[in-house]
Amino acid sequence: MCPGYPRRLWFETTDTTPPSVPTNLTVVSTASTTITLSWSPSSGSGGVGGYRILSGSSPTTMSIVASPTTNSWTFPWGYPGRTYYFAVESFNPRGISSTAGPALAAATSAH
């Protein structure tokens, strides 16, 4: 260490425990091409880095479509009058994911 320079300490989180599974996924609003979702925030001993939104035309065809850092999100790619399925998982700052919560079906409104 050089005189006159502060000592720097680096800490890396070693938390390998995923955050809690997001719960209470609900539809806040719908329009002809959008669906707004919200859910109860997750928690974890190492914190929550964000969420991953899974979406698809059925619960078995869902894939990750977004990664918001807050507990709400708007699906912007809908077609009028179609049903989409959504689920949310959380991840900690190291990227370790929870399992996804239950899938929710939501439909855009018709024109």
Summed up, the domain count is 1
Uncertain parts: none
Which structural category do the helix and sheet elements fall into? mainly beta
Q: The CATH topology is what?
A: Immunoglobulin-like
- Tally of helical runs: 0
Assign an overall shape: elongated
Q: How do the strands line up in the largest sheet?
A: 4-3-6-7
The biggest beta sheet reads: 4 strands, antiparallel
Q: In percent terms, what proportion of residues is strand?
A: 35-45%
Query: Class, according to the CATH hierarchy?
Result: Mainly Beta
Report the order of strands and helices.
Answer: EEEEEEE
> Would you report the number of β strands?
7
What is the arithmetic mean of pLDDT? Answer: 92
CATH architecture: Sandwich
Helix content: under 10%
Write the layout of secondary structure elements.
Layout: E1 23-30, E2 35-40, E3 50-56, E4 63-66, E5 72-75, E6 83-91, E7 104-107
Antiparallel strand pairs: 1-2, 2-5, 3-4, 3-6, 6-7
Structural write-up:
- A 4-stranded antiparallel β-sheet has the order 4-3-6-7, with no helix packed on it. The chain has a 3-stranded antiparallel β-sheet with strand order 1-2-5, with no helix packed on it.
- It has strands at 23-30, 35-40, 50-56, 63-66, 72-75, 83-91, 104-107.
- It has 111 residues and is mainly beta.
- The relative contact order is 0.30.
- The chain has a single domain (23-107), classed as Sandwich (Immunoglobulin-like), CATH 2.60.40.
- The protein contains no helices and 7 strands.
